[in-house]
Write a structure and sequence with these properties.
Elements (H helix, E strand, L loop, with lengths): L8 E4 L4 E4 L3 H22 L9 E5 L3 H6 L13 E5 L4 E5 L5 H19 L6 H12 L2 E3 L2 E4 L4 H9 L5 H6 L5 H4 L4 H17 L6 H11 L7 H12 L3 H14 L5 E3 L11 E4 L2 H16 L2 H13 L5 H12 L3 H13 L5 H15 L11 H17 L5 H12 L5 H10 L7 H13 L3 H12 L5 H15 L21
Parallel strand pairs: 2-3, 3-5
Antiparallel strand pairs: 1-2, 1-9, 4-5, 6-7, 7-8
Length: 500
């Protein structure tokens, strides 16, 4: 693999690992800056990492080695200094040797903010996601704390040369919108998203902080608000409609007067505290093979990982990466087999526990059936996966939901597991299906009064069609009457993978 030699070092901080071919000082600084961005993001948004995904940073010494691992679609002559790539088992940050660290940092930080939104299970609309990524990409350490929101020259140039799009158009953009993907306004969309977020946070707008917070919280709610609901919330928060705000925004971007904010240093470990060790040639060879397979589905990288499964029997990572590769190819059976072996030989990767549990649970809970019972061995196996997932990522939400369904359908429900779910219930992102599962547990325990109380609580949550049908089945059973005819639906999941 390009870049393989015996001069690499491994650094470990609280939330990242770094394989570096560079000297110790810049390596520790890079790792510390990533911890800094993560700390500011978490403290500013009051978020926690629920969907833990390990991050591996690769800091190359030679530009030619960095370019050897860029996506093939980038083509020759691509002038990139950093790259973020997400996979199922982990995410990679690839960093080139550069003289202008500020520009490289801006690109990496922008993409890493998207990673942070994902792992915190916060799903803002595209304009807010991109605007915040730009806002935090220029973060700097100052003498009195952390400076955020310094304007980007590129965004200022864009915003000054084009007419702003109406806010209703900006707010309507999603991942499939032409204006976001490849349309003629792609640059303007990013620039206007940054400008609006910057104005709300740092512009001398006279808008109340409470109104700004209420609106930004409202746009991130699930399910997403309709266009009419969003406009009503906007008027309520700012006492104006879209055209008036657009006039203010146009004046703001042409005035040339931009301020930025300061935050106290987040509570992170100092750079000199990070553990460091030398990396054997065989280890970096296998790690770079994993990068090549993840980024480009490189067949030689895959071959090296398959060899590593035999030659490095105590190293679970090749199995983790090969499992993700199988899943990219649509081969769930092979992915499950490889991830299961990774856990057997000691993997502590929270994403592997989580994804394997999602896949195996999804196959059992595709339909709502009060009379269904999980085989005892299956229940034991699924509990082991979920308990491991919770152990290594206790702030997640989906594992508690799945655990509730296992106890709802187990021959002998586990009281400690039920208590564990109930203890974390208030923090769960998806409460509807979990509450229905807990109602089934109460029904099976012949505690019909509590079961009905839980169903009544569900009525206030605007349950989706699948949950509503399950509620009706349980309620009819308790009340000793026929089930009302409701549409039979396939369950939807806010997590995208698990549907009980």
């Amino acid at each position: 693999m390009p870049g393989t030699d015996d001069k690499w070092r491994h650094f470990r901080s609280a939330n990242f690992e770094l394989y570096s071919r560079n000297s110790e000082g810049p390596s520790r600084e890079l790792l510390h800056n990533l911890e800094l961005l993560r700390g500011v993001f978490m403290e500013d948004f009051k978020l926690v990492e629920r969907r833990r995904l390990d991050v591996t940073v690769i800091f190359f010494r030679e530009e030619k080695d960095f370019h050897a691992y860029l996506p093939a679609s980038f083509g020759k002559g691509t002038n990139f200094s950093g790259l973020y790539v997400g996979s199922t088992d982990r995410s990679y940050v690839l960093v080139a040797p550069v003289d202008d660290w500020a520009s490289a940092q801006q690109l990496i930080y922008h993409e890493f903010v998207h990673h942070l939104f994902m792992v915190t299970e916060d799903e803002p609309p595209v304009w807010l996601n991109e605007g915040m990524a730009d806002l935090l990409s220029t973060i700097e350490v100052g003498s009195d704390g952390v400076q955020i929101g310094k304007p980007s020259a590129g965004r200022l140039m864009q915003i000054h040369t084009e007419k702003l799009m109406p806010l209703e158009q900006l707010f309507a953009v999603d991942q499939n919108s032409r204006v976001f993907q490849k349309g003629e306004h792609t640059g303007l969309f990013y620039a206007e998203s940054w400008a609006l977020v910057h104005y709300l946070y740092f512009g001398k707008s006279g808008l109340s902080k409470d109104g700004i917070d209420r609106f930004l919280n409202f746009v991130r709610r699930k399910p997403p608000p309709t266009a009419d609901e969003l406009r009503a919330a906007f008027r309520g928060a700012f006492s104006m409609d879209y055209p008036e705000m657009l006039k203010r925004l146009e004046h703001y971007v042409t005035s040339g007067r931009y301020s930025w904010g300061r935050r106290p240093m987040p509570k992170i470990e100092p750079a000199d505290s990070y553990a460091m060790r030398a990396v054997p040639r065989d280890e970096i060879r296998v790690r770079l093979a994993g990068v090549a397979l993840c980024v480009n589905q490189n067949p030689y990288g895959k071959l090296l990982l398959l060899e590593a499964v035999k030659n490095r029997p105590a190293d679970p990572r090749p199995l983790e990466e090969l499992g993700s590769d199988a899943l990219r190819d649509g081969d769930e059976l092979t992915a499950k087999e490889r991830w299961g072996k990774a856990l057997e030989i000691g993997s502590r990767n929270p994403a592997i526990y989580r994804e394997l549990a999602l896949m195996e649970c999804g196959g059992w809970f595709s339909q709502f059936d009060l009379d269904f019972r999980l085989p005892e061995e299956t229940a034991r196996h699924l509990r082991t996966l979920l308990q491991g997932s919770i152990k290594y990522a206790p702030e997640q939400t989906v594992a508690y939901e799945m655990l509730a369904w296992i106890e709802a359908y187990a021959a002998e429900p586990s009281i400690p597991n039920i208590n564990l779910v109930q203890t974390h219930f208030s923090a769960l992102k998806e409460k509807q299906r979990t509450l229905l599962a807990l109602a089934v547990v109460r029904f099976r325990a012949n505690d019909k009064t509590i079961a009905l109380h839980l169903l009544d609580s569900l009525d206030t949550m605007r349950p989706d069609a699948w949950v509503a049908r399950g509620m009706e089945i349980v309620r009819a059973k308790i009340e000793g009457r026929p089930v009302k005819r409701l549409p039979r639906t396939t369950p939807s999941s806010s997590h995208g993978e698990f549907a009980p």
